[in-house]
């Protein structure tokens, strides 16, 4: 029974990773850029949620929506200001810019606010439910359910709506998409907005779940979500979801076995293994260069 | 309908088109023939807004479209079927066709055009729910053309529709091109298969290393010794 409990904890953690990983993978899918500032968007989301709850007394869901909205705008601004002009530059130039943007957000935020940590307000009364002998906290259950709902909405947007189809078209062939009359700039902005909103939601979940947030909190979850995206196959949306969940469960299991010191190492061991044995990820096809 | 006047187009520092002029009248099939690398695809890409001319003008229905963004050119009624088909392989046939109608707001008309495309290409109806990456080359060419028709173009730009297709499929594709033209769409056709292209076109331009070197009625060019020698394999 204890194992099932751990599994549920792992899935909750994993759904946070999955939400962040989705933004990485969507942005990579469309402009082939690893947006290393994405973890910092997650951090901004956590703080917007924090101020909304602690400062303005908003409830969990209004704070969540506000954090998602602010992050969406923030993500679009990052793209418009920093990445747009590099669209035809070498990929390494864009990558270095992304790292620069990440550092700018982290230390800019510290400069404005200070580096001290904050304790997340207790916005959700945490109850433990007894489900057939398994203890489940209401928080992890809520995080899990809301994450799943967000992923279902994302799936719907990507597959059923016009903007979703445009996103898939641009990510497959930007030039051909233009010939359909698709506005590439708008589509890329929409991708950044959606990915950043999901990271913002993950930030609020993280705050509620772990109760401590600070300006550099995005670094490690950001890198781990990147691992999750690579694990699932970078650029593939279901891959990011599965990769995130797998990573969360593996970390929880490693902790439960008594190796909690090794928890972070587990993610990087997975990254090394995947790069050695299946660099295209779980869902990726081996990319053969077309001649 | 379309009047290209003295355009220069560059890829970086390399000049791909040098003072190219060309005209397409409403209802015509005009073909542009020439060897690989002569600048045929570059010209089409410039017309559809993927490339910007450095010099010269492009008039389309009284409007200047040189350097306009691709989406406003599609909106104005020019659709471009690119070389190599470029279908969205990870999407179904139906989704590809929907993307062709991306800018249209008249859902009734879109519905009619779906029927029209499925009538022109019954194969696509059979494979409606199939991922387009699994189609054969000929079917992908049909899809790329159907997708362009979904935008309801007045002028259709076709880039190498016969490339890599079996002779029988080439015949099918060309008879469909003529059918599309008879239904009222003007066509600018780029081809390496000069023989086929000249047999369906009203007029033709011959392009060589970025410049137009000959033009005239298709039948005349077909009869010219010089063209025969260079592009029709001396037949």
Automatic annotation (TrEMBL), chain A:
Cellular-component GO terms for this entry: plasma membrane
GO terms for biological process, alphabetical: D-alanine transmembrane transport; L-alanine transport; L-isoleucine import across plasma membrane
Compartment(s) where it occurs, according to its Swiss-Prot or TrEMBL record: Cell membrane
Keyword field contains Cell inner membrane: yes
Transmembrane segments: 6-26, 60-78, 90-112, 132-158, 188-210, 265-284
Topology in the lipid bilayer: Multi-pass membrane protein
Keywords per UniProt: Amino-acid transport, Cell inner membrane, Cell membrane, Membrane, Transmembrane, Transmembrane helix, Transport
Pfam families reported in the protein's UniProt record: BPD_transp_2
Entry GO MF terms: L-isoleucine transmembrane transporter activity; L-leucine transmembrane transporter activity; L-phenylalanine transmembrane transporter activity; L-valine transmembrane transporter activity
Family: Belongs to the binding-protein-dependent transport system permease family. LivHM subfamily.
PANTHER family: BRANCHED-CHAIN AMINO ACID TRANSPORT SYSTEM PERMEASE PROTEIN LIVH, HIGH-AFFINITY BRANCHED-CHAIN AMINO ACID TRANSPORT SYSTEM PERMEASE PROTEIN LIVH
Name under which the protein is recorded: Branched-chain amino acid ABC transporter permease
Native source species: Bacillus yapensis
Automatic annotation (TrEMBL), chain B:
PROSITE patterns: ABC_TRANSPORTER_1 (PS00211), ABC_TRANSPORTER_2 (PS50893)
GO molecular function, one term: ATP binding
Keywords: Amino-acid transport, ATP-binding, Nucleotide-binding, Transport
Protein name (record): ABC transporter ATP-binding protein
UniProt cross-references to Pfam families, sorted A to Z: ABC_tran
Domain ABC transporter: 2-234
UniProt GO BP: L-amino acid transport
Superkingdom field: Bacteria
PANTHER family: HIGH-AFFINITY BRANCHED-CHAIN AMINO ACID TRANSPORT ATP-BINDING PROTEIN LIVF
InterPro entries according to UniProt: AAA+_ATPase, ABC_branched_ATPase_LivF/BraG, ABC_transporter-like_ATP-bd, ABC_transporter-like_CS, BCAA_Transport_ATP-bd_LivF, P-loop_NTPase
Cytoplasm in keyword set: no
Protein family according to the UniProt entry: Belongs to the ABC transporter superfamily.
Organism: Bacillus yapensis
